[in-house]
From TrEMBL:
GO cellular component: cytochrome complex; plasma membrane
Transmembrane segments: 12-38, 59-81, 87-104, 125-146, 166-189, 210-230, 250-275, 287-307, 333-354
GO MF annotations in UniProt: electron transfer activity; metal ion binding; oxidoreductase activity, acting on diphenols and related substances as donors, oxygen as acceptor
GO biological process annotation, one example: aerobic electron transport chain
Protein name according to UniProt: Cytochrome d ubiquinol oxidase subunit II
Similarity comment text for this entry: Belongs to the cytochrome ubiquinol oxidase subunit 2 family.
Membrane protein topology class: Multi-pass membrane protein
PANTHER family from the UniProt entry: CYTOCHROME BD-I UBIQUINOL OXIDASE SUBUNIT 2, CYTOCHROME BD2 SUBUNIT II
Keywords per UniProt: Cell membrane, Electron transport, Heme, Iron, Membrane, Metal-binding, Transmembrane, Transmembrane helix, Transport
NCBIfam families: cydB
Gene name, Swiss-Prot/TrEMBL: cydB
Compartment(s) where it occurs, according to its Swiss-Prot or TrEMBL record: Cell membrane
Superkingdom, taxonomy of origin: Bacteria
Amino acid sequence: MFESLSHLALQQYWWIIISILGATLAFLMFVQGGQTLIYQIGKDKDERTMLINALGRKWEFTFTTLVTFGGAFFASFPLFYSTSFGGAYWGWMILLFAFILQAVSYEFRSRPGNVFGARTYESFLFFNGFIGTILIGVVIASFFTGSQFSLTDMNETRWQSPLRGIELLFSLHNLSLGIAVFFLARTLGLLYFQNTIEDENISQRIRKQLWYNAIPFLVFFLTFVIWLMLRDGFAVNSETGKVFMEANKYFNNLIEMPLVLVIFLSAVLLVLYGIAISLFKNSNGGIWFTGSGTFLAVFSLFLLAGFNNTAFYPSTYDIQSSLTIMKASSSHFTLTVMSYVSLFVPFVIAYIWFTWRAINKKKITKDELKSGEAHFY
């Protein structure tokens, strides 16, 4: 079946898979967002324990998706992996270290004999939520703004900045998306708490914090998108493979790919609707609308970056070193074998959905906390 597809068709298929995984990761970042709100929503030890346990039941989904996303990217587009990780390794190492701290914190926060105290691990969770969200947003933004690297004839990476990826944080356009992802993750975290925890005091604080996080998210996200639509983009000549700058490239991509435009506009409406029903109708279901909108928005951004003859990992130092899905992909054979493995993805999604529903079947309450029946993080 897959072996009959052209190499280009397989490359496009795997870019869609990567886009789905990246979009799923963006939705699951509500865990990171929630971790930055523990002390703003929880005013005593019991309330903070409720919040952390609500997130603790889901943090492994985020961690696993991150690993899967990275592994799939490495296998399908290895030149991106070697270029980015080989060049911008300080940025990636900080991000990975932040996620290691998260895993350690959930494992040891409430263990007997914890000599560092719960607050130390709660600080680690905040660090993971703050650094993790901003860095991931900045990395996604660099798919449009570019990085300072060049490739030799043997595809050896030569990163031109001694900061090795940290310099991406000095771009205002990159930061606009990084900060937007930070506030989006916090907004999703609030909506998840609202859906999962049954406590009137916490619910009141959630509604208040929604205003403080949803509005900055919208401001920074609109700044990023409007800026993106107006800037020149990295286009690729379909016949020669040469990369060149095209005015309003990403706006042109939206117009020339109407399905992506519909997906993006639907995403915006879903995000706004989920926030609105939570604020004005006190609904507990906002996470599903805003979460679905987040998935579709990030999915459409990945398609904008990689499809319609666009360089998805551009170089601002040597434009011809920019990576496209054609240039950066694995061989036809490798992509074919991987495509058969990808047929198991629906079963994995079904398992995650079943597990999610089973875990969230009963809302977290203070009575459950006092009973001591459940596992606590």
